Input
Amino acid sequence: MRVLGAVTVVALAAGLVAGLGLAPREVTQGNVQRIMYLHVPSVWVAYLAFAVVFVASIAYLAKRADAADRLAHASAEVGVVFTGVTIATGSIWGKPTWGTWWTWDARLTSVSILFVMYLGYLLLRGMIDDRERGARYAAVLGIVAAFNIPLVHFSVIWWRTLHQPPSLMTPGPAMPRVIITALLVNFVAFSLLYVYFVAKRVHLLRREAEAAA
Amino acid sequence: MPDNWGFVLAAYGLAAVVLIGYWRMLVRQESDLEDRSRLAPSSGSHAAPISGHPTPGSQAVSAREGERSHAAPISGHLTPGSQATSAREGERSHAAPISGHPRPKPDSRHPLQ
Output
């Protein structure tokens, strides 16, 4: 765990240097575009976290394995943290570029709904005293809530929105290599941070369960 | 377009606060769990023993892990075994007896032993 933590810190430092130092100033937005190196990896981790909740919830309902339930719980918690970071950094980015902190645009609204759904997922777990029943209800919600992920991702394509469409996976003029590299470094760093947080949270949940038994 | 470095710093600063805050919460929970698991073998409760003889196991485990015991005996007799373990690890238990026998120094033997 310590090695993973150390590697994550190094990767985050490299991501910071790449995003704030090595990547060039963007022509139309100026330096405020550097928020992208934080905002986009955050939402990637949120998607990843909720996809893990989806798979682990199915595994729990199929096999009733406590390990799958703990993984779903830990991943949902970390996903909520990263969704919060995504919304906050997006709002800060929106003010200088759109002229507003917030608008009820399809992307912003759908990601807010995603955030509230997983917040509800965590509250649901906390509300039910019977651990097994709470895990079962949470697993059902974890599966249902995951259907919001494609809605969030494709909202910028399906509806007319203020938010820009996906830049990486759509055909068109290629981004400069240095921008893609900086973004990839941050993707790796944030993914490592996700793995570190989830591993630590799963470990804590297992110890809590052992202490309660 | 102006550079808006203030917004960039605000975004990075806010993310740092949230992520470090979450990490600190996990670390705090972990240390709370460790404390609880250390105290758990003593008697199943966190109450201090009323009449002076702490459970040998709990004292020994606590001293072995380099932590002080919070269970202060009210009337003074510490189990010799626990003292010996504490002395072996070069640690002193801070559980001061409120009344009764003064505690021998960790490196000295009890006269009756």
